[in-house]
Amino acid sequence: MKLNNIKTYILFTGILSQVIGLNAQTYIGLNHSNLGGIHQANLNPANIANSRHRLYFNGITAGFGFNNDYLKLNFPFPILNLITGKVPSSYTNSNGSLLFQDNWLKENINGRAKNMNLYLQTKAPGFMMSLPHGFALGFQYKNTINLQMNDVSEPLARLARYGIDSSKGGLSYSGPNQFQIGQTFGDNSFTVNVNAFGEFGVTLAKTIVNTENLVLKFGVTPKLLLGYATGYIKNRGLLIKAAGTDTIVFGETDLEYGYTDISAFSNLQNINFGAINNKLQGSGFGYDIGAAFEYKNKAFKNVGNKKNNYTFRGGISIIDGGHIAYKNKIKNTRISNSGGDKAFIISPAFASAWSNGTDKGLKYTDSVMRTLLNVDTTAKTIQTNMPSTINLQFDYNIFKFLYLGANLSQDLRGKNSIGMRKPSYIVIIPRFESRFLELALPIGIMNDYRNTRLGMYLRIGPAFIGSDNLIGQLKGKDIYGTDVYFGFSFGITKKKNKTSSDKDTGCNQ
User: Fold this and answer.
1) What are the pLDDT digits (tens) for 55-108?
2) pLDDT digits (tens, 9 = 90+) for 220-246
3) Exposure string for 339-377, b = 16+ CB within 10 A, e = fewer
4) Average pLDDT, the chain
């Protein structure tokens, strides 16, 4: 069995192949809107208190996306041409379908570690209602599938890109890698996390202070977390070299990985709609908590939106605290070596085991590793952390229906965490907001403050669509990722101020 027939099984196992076709969102424009109803609780649970709505229902909301900082899709034409069906004939098949070319994938070679995030999320049902004495109550049910790779070294990313090819005998890596046989490969710590989970969240918010000029409110969302499936690889350090075409030599090694029944990832119907009947592999508790204020300046009452209680609004929140503990059908393994080089022979039996499925491949790999390295399988629980962030929000009512918002979101987990994380970002959000029409253009520095993005959020009546980078996707040729969310929600607005001449009750979003 030659190395050119192996596509790095140890690093990218069948756990990932089950979900690599799926996609997964921050919903910035939707969550920041005064007319977002229960969606506002996803940014700060305090925001549903003193809300514009008496009652609000989320029919269905879905989002998906993919982002990375290694490979960009470099179309020779604007992607808008692909959407509108105006791709030049030289890039299509005889039936008009796109003729994809591998050279459209371009590497970002800068010596830095690479990251990737892939997700799919659905939300339904959900609702909120305003209650007497300043209280508000909300409920949401969400399901998320997420795959993340963090801090993958550039040579290792290139290995995944080009595979292994020793056909010429002098190189163990094809393409431009130029990695020599016998050369030690190190400096490759990374984490991989894949998760499928659901959330039942109940939001309770309360207006604590409500004066003519100032409103203070507080909110909390306790959550029941439903663990459908998980998997992770945590590589603290792995020294390897290709001693020959069929041999990998392990030096100092500290690699940990675990997974549940990975077949659960392929059953999207159970994940999205069968939570009650679906047999869970893990469970846990989570929470969102936040506080907010609204200040109304009398001097600006004639230029602001009279339906709002504020000239400017601010808040702070911690979102997605907690974790899921998996105890059913788990495999948890830590492999270490500090006793000198150990040779791993890539035999025909190894290839045969993997060709018969992921489970058999993993079992065979485990059995071989036990004969070479220290293997610890005593851990009986996989604890998957939720993607905790701390968020600061600000919103200013510039004139009538015009607003300028801002949001800073800082990751609290770090890239070495077992579980999910949300990359940090800072964004400003100019928007036009009325009952039947809303348009926002989030402008920010995303992906841990590395990439600038220009997104869009559009709502017409109860229907909405948005993206954190939609405009860049449509106009540009170089794409490092894509994302979109959409849905249908509606509510009944309330009379905000009994002494105002602009009392308002009606259907919205």
Assistant:
1) 999 999 999 887 888 887 777 776 667 666 777 887 788 777 777 777 777 888
2) 999 999 998 899 999 888 777 766 667
3) eeeeebebeeebbebbeeebeebbebbeebbeeebeeee
4) 80
Q: Is 204 helix (H, G, I), strand (E, B) or coil?
A: strand
| Residue 206 belongs to some domain of the structure | yes
CA distance 476 to 479: 7
Amino acid of residue 340: G
Q: Is residue 359 part of a domain?
A: yes
Look at residues 238, 262, 257, 384 and name the one whose alpha carbon lies nearest to residue 333.
257
Counted domains in the chain: 1
Is residue 187 a part of any domain in this protein? yes
> How buried is 483 (Cβ within 10 angstroms: 0-12 exposed, 13-18 middle, 19+ buried)?
buried
* Tokens matching residue 162: 């080009």
Q: Which domain holds residue 249?
A: 3-59+111-417
Q: Where are the beta strands (DSSP E) in 400-424?
A: 402-411
Q: What is the pLDDT of residue 156?
A: 76
Question: What is the three-class DSSP state of 354?
Answer: helix
124 vs 42: CA distance, rounded Å? 14
Rounded distance between C-alpha atoms, residue 118 and residue 227, angstroms: 18
Q: Report the pLDDT value the prediction gives residue 504, as an integer from 0 to 100.
A: 41
Q: Write the DSSP assignment of 9-39 as a string of letters.
A: TTTS-HHHHTTTT------HHHHT-TT-GGG
CA-CA distance, 453 to 29, in Å (whole number)?
Answer: 13
Q: What is the pTM of this model?
A: 0.81
Cross-sheet strand order for the sheet of 71-74: 105-107, 71-74, 478-479
Alpha carbon distance 104, 92 (integer Å)? 14
What is the rounded (10 degree) CA torsion for 374, 378, 384, 388?
-80
In this prediction, residues 132-150 reach a mean pLDDT of 92
For the beta carbon of residue 41, count every other beta carbon within 10 angstroms: 31
Does residue 299 carry a pLDDT above 50? yes
Contact in structure between 365 and 350 (CB atoms under 8 Å): yes
pLDDT band at 480 (very low <50, low <70, confident <90, very high): low
Q: Please say if the pLDDT value at position 420 is more than 70.
A: yes
* Residue 139 in domain: yes
* Residues contacting 411, CB < 8 A, separation 6+: 387, 388, 389, 421, 422, 423, 424, 448
pLDDT of residue 461: 93
Residue 359, H or E segment: helix 358-372
Please count the CA atoms within 13 angstroms of the CA of 55 that sit on its side-chain side: 4
